[in-house]
Fold this sequence. Notes:
This protein has 402 residues and is α/β, with parallel strands linked by helices. It has 16 helices and 15 strands.
Amino acid sequence: MIPRRRLPIRSEDLTEWFRTLCMIYHQSEDDVPKFERAFADYLGCEFARATTSGRDALELALDAVGTVPGDEVIIPAYTLGELLPLMQSKGLTLIPADIEQDTFNIDIKSIENRINERTKVICATHLMGTPCDIANICVLADHRGIAVIEDCAHALGASVSGQKVGTFGTAAIFSLEVNKAVPTYGGGMFVTNDRKIAASVASALHKRHRSELPALRKALFSWLEELVVRSPLYAPLAKLLFSEKAAKHFEKFYRSAHDQVRTEKIAYSSYQARIGLKRLRALDSRNARLNKSWAELAKELPEGFAAQNRERVGLPAFYNFIALSDMDTTVLRHRAAHLGVDIGIKTEIMDDCASILKANDCPVSASVFERAVLLPLYEGLSEKKFKQLVSVLHELSKDQGL
Ligand SMILES: Cc1ncc(COP(=O)(O)O)c(C=O)c1O
């Protein structure tokens, strides 16, 4: 079975893990600021602050730009549903804007139709590493005194006209989760060019308890999970867990298990910062390699699949390969599993947040949610597996007429 994803674990992660454990009470105070500075320099912005997760960074950003209960936040209708309760718990009203059919990113015309005097923030997500129309969104927001928070959870390294995403808006957030471009076993980054906003986030983070243990524990669990994915156990397990009946429950359980780790609001650790620095140095070559593989797979897609349009606005960073399928995706997933390929569908990719919020005015998001498939493409996918994937896609394409 070709798994849907593989974690890019490096031997240096293990070496650092043991080193950290041996010197658990003697961590340098400099590691985190060093990583933050390198992160800000990489992006070309003034301030970067490491957080517990991308969600944590988003919460901090919403507070720092001065939202109060009752304010409206425009969000893309197609994004991570777990962000909704987090924003709603602050008393914010979430207004979903529809997305574009080809990029799957928030549609600026839809944003324009939803702006009113209560709009405080536009959350502009660069979905799957594909830059959204961020420059024009910022112009729209600036005229009206609305803050723009860029959600760059998937998009570290993407750029528009030579400027890195994350440096256009009022503030931006990044995820450093294990499946992201700079994976540091959890963590996130808040960035801004605004000194006052940066100071308010730094002061909230300063109160956090420091401990290396949660990140070390998370690394250990990630390696165990990866061991299962790479073992012969994975095929029968995947068949069971991703079966039509079990998939929804498993997805819920998996997300909530990860959530528990994320909700511990502790300071970003030295272990994570040291790994982050190394991964950051390798980021551009990682994105170049995977963008090349992305283009190769897009070229091989058979009839009945349409790849995401990633380059309309700028240069993408690699996150996942998403395509739209003409076939019922539940049936497609089942057939693909039978042929030895694990593909992701529906909530395993992103959520139709408009429907979660009971707003039925985002038809493109609803359709993309139903039709999107996540195909396995990641570092470590061998040429043999790549060919097998392409041949299975052609097989599935033949089925589409049935
Ligand atoms: C679009 C989007 N925003 C924010 C986040 C939150 O990042 P984290 O998992 O680090 O909390 C994610 C997580 O994958 C995401 O997909």
